[in-house]
Design a protein that fits this description.
The complex is a heterodimer.
Chain A lengths: L2 H22 L15 E6 L4 H18 L2 E6 L3 H11 L5 E5 H9 L18 H6 L1 E2 L2 E2 L2 E7 L1 E5 H6 L11 H11 L5 E4 L4 H10 L17 H15 L3 E2 L9 H6 L3 E6 L2 H9 L5 E4 L10 E10 L6 H11 L2 H11 L2 E2 L5 H7 L4 H5 L4 E2 L7 H9 L3 H5 L4 H19 L1
Helix pairs in contact in A: 2-13, 8-9, 16-18
Chain B lengths: L19 H42 L21 H7 L4 H36 L6 H13 L2 H11 L5 H8 L14 H8 L12 E2 L2 E2 H4 L5 H28 L2 H9 L4 H12 L1 H16 L3 H5 L9 H11 L3 H30 L1
Antiparallel strand pairs in B: 1-2
Helix pairs in contact in B: 2-15, 3-4, 3-9, 3-12, 4-9, 5-9, 12-15, 14-15
Classes of the chains: A alpha/beta, B mainly alpha.
């Protein structure tokens, strides 16, 4: 081999080694290490928009000035994908949003540091939210905020249909009655997203669930869940309930804002969307009606995940402390409309936004998403059949049976 | 390895002993070889880092249960043998059913898109190659324009056009036709046609299952939603292929056309017996590129939503990897797709070539 040739080979192998090194990354993982000041924290967020990104940047600056650290906030275009890439590369951001439905996948891969209990007063967070981020008794990360589904009512259409406050539905029967009254030529009484994240509320109201409370058994084809789907199908066949695509909308909030729906079921993210896109629509928010087994709603939440591989864990915990103080949570609520996860912030939030009370009150009977590894594909498969409920091309029993079979399979395979 | 290898030999003014010229040529050859390797090395290293290593890594991953949340080489992953391939091909569960639906979707997509886009491209090329056509360059640009526009932008526009209450349905309504809810209609075209003549249930013989899907479902044809993507893709890619045909057409000398004129060929005969045979290499190229491209369709599927009625193997590979954290299954899909494309291209190459003999 010649010198030049050898150089080429050396160069090539150096490049290969470089790639291999990057792929391997460093492997320290035990909790609580690192310096407390003079570090740069990388924070990856799934931002809802500029308001959220700016609010986090401001919080990062304030904390950095106080502690002598620096915070770099990166809003992800696709958080799941970008976080996966970062974790696979071995250099994940120090702090990132973790959706409750992704939590179990991440803990199973040992990607999260177990820091929930190390954050100041973390026990004050709503217990149902803590539960969403607890696995085998470990409270991994602190919920940053949350949303509950509630029923939004277009008050103009409501009055036009001759309905009053006394008619606000509190049972399934009443919901059907008002939906019928509200349905006219161009308006559908109720438009809800064709996803398990909406239909799941009906399942819980009927006393059902996709998976048992301890997460060990799939209970998708229970008679309770069947009752829930049959109720949705009944309303769908009566044309008083439709799914967004059937009324040419992207989601329930769009149908609601455009006046194609008199009612919808969304979380408090709809407040910001209505303010930005449909400021002239008058509406009010009430709790979801109760089903045969009582009241229930679905809750969506994210936590401040700290990477198990982060070298700056103690600084990261300190920053999460700062982010989850009552004051900071109320600031975030003002800046981009989220609900504080701290019970201590509840009264402040309700007095700031009395018209959003219904979102908060749902918390007492809120259920989290199903999120064991492998369920995402199962859920997608189930949701493909939801649209067909309305025209009768999907059979509720068959849908639930296949959900049961696929979920059992995923639980066995992935768990 | 010796230092003499690289030292240039001094030119020999006098004839050297018998073995000298041979030795000298060898050294010169080597020098040239080294120079050659050096010149291609940037590209080679690039290919190695961005193609060869990732492909090998993906192949390795397809035999593991890697979840994408640690390093695939040193991280927490188990070697699972053929498990991922079994899930896709032999185990009757959700993964195989999804994969089989994805294959079906893509099969109908290819079957409709490739012939139409090839024929359309050829037709457009012949049109704009006509020297008596006024504003030729305008038409050439116009037909090529969709091909250079971002597929993301075009798909977004199509999504607006084909919404339930969008422009396309408004136009159909004007003609007295009630358009379907394009982007949410998962019914297959053939099933729709059959239900038009009263067949709505699968006949007994078609209930046999192949890859977790009944024969009846395999022959559902493309879904209504897929039709939107088919129209979109034909419209965007025929411009590119038109350009290839156009280049080939311009290579055919005028004297060939004149000769056929003298022989008394009419314009159809000239196209069928003179132009088309001379375009055969280009036709082969266009068909091959068409088949490869259509089996890899992704952007349009990604944007129209993760919908089983349009899901293709390429998209499913992404979905399984990043949304379901099963990179093993995702990579296995990629390799099965690779095998499929290889087989089909080889087959098609052989078919088109045989015709020539």
């Amino acid at each position: 081999m010649s010198v030049r040739q050898r150089r080429t080979v050396v160069l090539a192998s150096a490049a290969v080694a470089l790639v291999a090194l990057t792929a391997c990354g460093s492997g320290n993982s035990s909790g609580g290490g690192g310096k407390k000041s003079g570090v740069t924290l990388k924070v990856l967020i799934g931002s809802s928009g500029d308001a959220e990104t700016n609010a986090l940047n401001a919080a990062g600056k304030a904390w950095g000035a106080k502690t002598g650290n620096k915070v770099v906030v990166t809003p992800a275009k696709d958080l799941t994908q970008e976080l996966t890439q970062a974790l696979a590369g071995g250099t994940p951001p120090d702090i990132f949003y973790v959706d409750a439905s992704r939590f179990q996948t991440l803990t199973k891969a040992n990607a999260l540091a177990d820091v929930g209990a190390k954050v100041k007063d973390s026990a004050d967070i709503y217990p149902s939210l803590q539960k969403a981020f607890t696995e085998d008794g470990h409270y991994y990360c602190v919920p940053k905020d949350f949303s509950n589904l509630a029923l939004e009512i277009n008050t103009t259409l409501w009055a036009k249909a001759g309905l009053t406050d006394a008619d606000i539905p509190t049972t399934w029967g009443q919901l059907e009655t008002v939906a019928k009254k509200l349905t006219t030529g161009g308006v559908t009484g109720l438009v809800i997203g064709d996803s398990l994240d909406r239909l799941g509320a009906f399942m819980h109201q009927a006393g059902g669930a996709v998976i048992s409370e301890d997460g060990s058994k799939v209970t998708a084809n229970s008679p309770q869940n069947l009752a829930a789907l049959q109720y949705v199908q009944k309303l769908g066949k009566e044309k008083v309930l439709q799914f967004p695509k059937q009324v040419s909308a992207g989601w329930g909030g769009e149908a609601f804002g455009k006046g194609k729906a008199a009612m919808t079921m969304e979380g408090n993210w709809i407040v910001g969307a209505m303010k930005a896109d449909y400021p002239s629509v008058k509406y009010k928010v009430v709790e979801l009606p109760a089903g045969p087994s009582g009241k229930a709603t679905l809750s969506f939440t994210n936590c401040w995940g700290v990477a198990a591989k982060s070298a700056n864990q103690s600084a990261a915990i300190d920053f999460v402390d700062f982010l989850t103080t009552t004051d900071q949570q109320v600031t975030f609520a003002k800046d981009f409309g989220v609900m504080p996860s701290r019970q201590a912030a509840k009264s402040q939030f309700v007095s700031l936004y009395p018209d959003q009370q219904a979102f908060v009150t749902g918390t007492d009977h809120a259920f989290g998403p199903v999120g064991f590894p492998g369920f995402a594909a199962v859920q997608k498969d189930f949701e493909a059949g939801i649209n067909g409920l309305a025209d009768g091309s999907s059979d509720p029993k068959k849908l639930l049976d296949s959900l049961q079979k696929n979920a059992e399979d995923a639980l066995k395979n992935g768990g | 390895m010796t230092a003499t290898d690289v030292r240039p030999e001094a030119p020999a003014p006098v004839p050297a002993p018998a073995q000298r010229p041979k030795r000298k040529r060898t050294a010169e050859d080597r020098r040239q070889a080294i120079a050659g390797w050096l010149f291609v090395s940037p590209a080679m290293i690039g290919l190695l880092i961005f193609m060869v290593i990732p492909i090998l890594l993906a192949f390795f991953v397809s035999f593991t249960n890697w979840d994408g949340l640690s390093s695939p080489i040193t991280g927490d992953r188990k070697f699972v043998g053929l498990h991922n391939y079994e899930q896709l091909l032999t185990r009757d569960a959700l993964t195989r059913r999804s994969f089989s639906v994805a294959l079906k979707n893509n099969f109908w997509f290819v079957l409709i898109v490739v012939p139409i886009q090839t024929a359309l491209a050829l037709w457009l090329a012949i049109l704009v190659n006509n020297k008596y056509l006024k504003g030729r360059s305008f038409f050439r640009t116009a037909f090529y324009f969709p091909a250079i526009t971002s597929s993301i932008a075009i798909t977004l526009v199509f999504i607006f056009l084909f919404q339930g209450g969008g422009a396309v349905n408004a136009m159909l309504k004007f003609l007295g036709i009630k358009g379907p809810n394009w982007l949410a209609d998962s019914r297959g075209l053939f099933h729709l046609a059959l239900s038009g003549v009263g067949v709505t249930k699968s006949p007994h013989w078609a209930q046999h299952q192949i890859l977790s899907q009944s024969i009846w479902d395999w022959f559902s044809g493309p879904s209504v939603t897929m039709v939107v993507i088919i129209i979109l893709v034909i419209w965007t890619t025929s411009g590119t292929f038109m350009l290839m045909f156009l280049a080939a057409l311009q290579n055919i000398g005028e004297e060939v056309d004149e000769a056929s004129d003298i022989d008394g060929a009419n314009s159809w005969q000239r196209l069928r017996y003179v132009t088309l045979p001379m375009l055969r290499p280009t036709l082969l190229l266009v068909l091959t590129l068409g088949i490869i491209g259509t089996w890899q369709v992704f952007d349009q599927i990604y944007l129209t939503g993760n919908n089983p009625a349009t899901r293709t193997p390429a998209f499913m590979s992404f979905d399984q990897s990043f949304n379901n954290n099963q990179f093993g299954v995702g990579s296995a899909i990629a390799f099965l797709l690779f095998a499929l494309i290889m087989t089909l291209s080889t087959l098609q190459r052989r078919l088109v070539k045989e015709e020539l003999d």
